[in-house]
Every structure is written in C-alpha cells, then in structure tokens.
Amino acid sequence: MICLHQSRGQNKARSIGFTLVELLVVMSIVALLVSIAAPRYFNHVERAKENSLRQSLATMRDAIDKFQADRNQLPDSLDDLVAQHYLRSIPKDPYTDSAQSWAAMPSPEDGTGVYDVHSGAEGNTQDGTPLNEL
Predict the structure, then answer these.
(1) Is the pTM for the entire model greater than 0.85?
(2) Mean pLDDT, to the nearest integer, of 6-21?
C-alpha cells in the first residue's frame, strides 16, 4: 500500500505543470501568428504616416491659399499662418516628428514668401515617390 500511495503522489506532481514539448508547440504557434501579423502591422503604420503627411500638407497648402486670397500676398513664413490664425499650430511632420522640418518653397515668380510646403523627411512613400516631393 505504501508503494501505491507514493506512486499516486508522484503522478499528481507530474500533472501540475506543462512538458517541454507542450511549451515548444505553443511557442511555435505564437511565433507563426506573429510572423504573419507583424508585416501587416508595420505596413499599416507606414500607410498611416503617409496619410497623415498628405493631410498635413493639404491643410497647410489650403491655409497658404486662404492667406494669399485674403491679404493679396504670400506669408513670409509658416509661423505667419499661426500668428494670423489661419492655423492653430504648425503640424508635426509624422516622419521627422518635428514641426520645424517643413521645407517652405518660395514663390516661383519673385522668390519671396511661402508659396508651397514639402516634408523635410528623407525616403520614399510606398509607391516610390520621394517624401520631400509630396
């Protein structure tokens, strides 16, 4: 009887945890799911940055156009758009994470004022367009 009781105690102790094989199977399934989901996640993050950049550029260009239509002149800097309440603040470039990295383009006619704005970021969009040419 004593031997039988000891073997029952040993079986209980062994059934409490997981075996190494069970842990390896679970870890391989988790790794497989992560390897499928990770590229989609990073692609989505990149697409969101690109959309945010396009929206910020469209907003600033619209403010430049409204400034020019109201005052018959181009703003001297992007800060003029904020000072005259055409923008609440200069948005951050999602690629550089800075509001100071925008490239203000002067008027092609006389080279003064802010005619257009581009991103100061290096690299390309997902379709191959350089970020600083959007």
Answers:
(1) no
(2) 66
